[in-house]
Amino acid sequence: MEVQLNSNINLFLSFKSNAEVQELDDNVLEILVSIFGTTDKNKKKKLLKKSNINILKNHKMQNKKDNIVNRVNLILNKLSETNLDVLTIEFLENINQVDVDTFEEIQKTFYLKIISEINFIKIYLQFLKVLGLIYWKVQSYDLSYFISIVESKFRLDYTEHDIAPESKFEFVREFDGETKRINNLILIKNLIEQKFLNETLNDSLDHLIISQTVFLPDIYYWFNSRNKELSNDEKNKISELLKLPSLNSREIVLLESLINKTNKIKQISNVTSSTKQTTKIIESTEIKTDTLKLELDNILEEYILIRSIDEIKYFIENRCSDAISKNKFCESILDKYFKSNKEISNELIELLKQLIKNQILFKSNLSRGLLLINNNWKDKTPDYNKPVEKMKGILNVLKNIGITKNIEFLFEQYKISLTNMH
């Protein structure tokens, strides 16, 4: 049996050098190809093994990244000013020491969270600063990757800089659109204010953003957030931008408001320069108030031109974060309502209804805004269009949406009954 088996094997091996069997019949080849495909027999085993290793390795790495991202986000979702210390301990207990790649993934998670939830930027950055200090002390890691993400986004938006497809910053490309650009600018401003970045960086950023001609509204948002007086060179550059034939009405309003704002602040500064004490008072109160009023006027003019409620929402959420500024916003929009023609007045009323409905503003903000108008009624009415008729109109609107508290005397004064409220 064994002799016969050896004989058969020897016979089979002899075919290897037999020319008659080295070329298969065409029909046989077609059948083999249809079953197994066209595979290089010399590479099949090696490539298959390598491919499987890469797939398993990449899958394992991705699972690890997802796990870290999920744990960091769970902690960030619970973060507030009152539990910063507790969550720092929780972070260290759950994540602890990590390798460089994982620490970069943590920084990326912070960036994505901040850009998506910009209203919580201050507490997120405060938490990041604490963690950055701990990891610097324990593992000698710094936050350079986080800063590089922010820089990559800025340069991608406002310069000729490009990001290579294989770069670890390539994900930044996905964050396009005006909201993400503005949020990145807000992040940069806060990084400078919280000493992550040197304040001298502002000059370079000013130059880069005012030198680009693609995202002109961003020039307004950047310089307006800085609340700085434009230099003559910057005003000249904006004046040149205003000559571009492709400008739309929104861009014109925003750029012109930057120049007007600077001139207004300069006038106030000159008037109040007589004594140091007066200057300090003006800088801390009147200039701040005047700046907000100017911004309110600008955003309302912009709304009348382009009817973008998203811009209004964004402005209120980022510029009118407290009750006092929300009241001032309502005062400004009602002031515009009283001054405008019927069509624009109706548009502004619909805007107020939407803002109340979406809880961007509250009913108390609107009633207090009307009280601010009424407190200066005699001085304001000469500039108003049919003031009595407009007052009755807004009071009826307020009554229909259930806003009467603290303004009952106005309903009585203008003889509007509250007994048939909806």
Tags for this entry?
72% helix; Serine Threonine Protein Phosphatase 5, Tetratricopeptide repeat; mainly alpha; 20 helices; 422 residues
Task: Describe the SSE topology.
Blueprint: H1 2-14, H2 26-36, H3 44-77, H4 84-94, H5 100-116, H6 121-139, H7 144-158, H8 178-193, H9 201-211, H10 216-226, H11 232-241, H12 249-271, H13 276-306, H14 309-319, H15 323-339, H16 342-357, H17 363-375, H18 377-380, H19 387-400, H20 408-413
Broad shape? elongated
The count of DSSP E runs of length 2 or more, i.e. the number of strands, is 0
| CATH architectural arrangement of the domain at 307-422 | Alpha Horseshoe
Number of helices: 20
Q: Helix proportion of residues, in percent?
A: over 70%
CATH topology of the domain at 307-422: Serine Threonine Protein Phosphatase 5, Tetratricopeptide repeat
Strand content: under 5%
State mean pLDDT (0 to 100 scale). 81
Mind telling me the C-alpha Rg? 33 Å
Distance between the termini: 104 Å
- Topology as a string of helices (H) and strands (E): HHHHHHHHHHHHHHHHHHHH
Written overview of the protein:
21% of the residues are buried. The protein has a domain at 307-422: Serine Threonine Protein Phosphatase 5, Tetratricopeptide repeat, CATH 1.25.40. Mean pLDDT is 81; it is low at 39-53 and 264-290. The protein is elongated. It is built from 20 helices and no strands. It has helices at residues 2-14, 26-36, 44-77, 84-94, 100-116, 121-139, 144-158, 178-193, 201-211, 216-226, 232-241, 249-271, 276-306, 309-319, 323-339, 342-357, 363-375, 377-380, 387-400, 408-413. Helix content is 72%, strand content 0%. The protein has 422 residues and is mainly α.
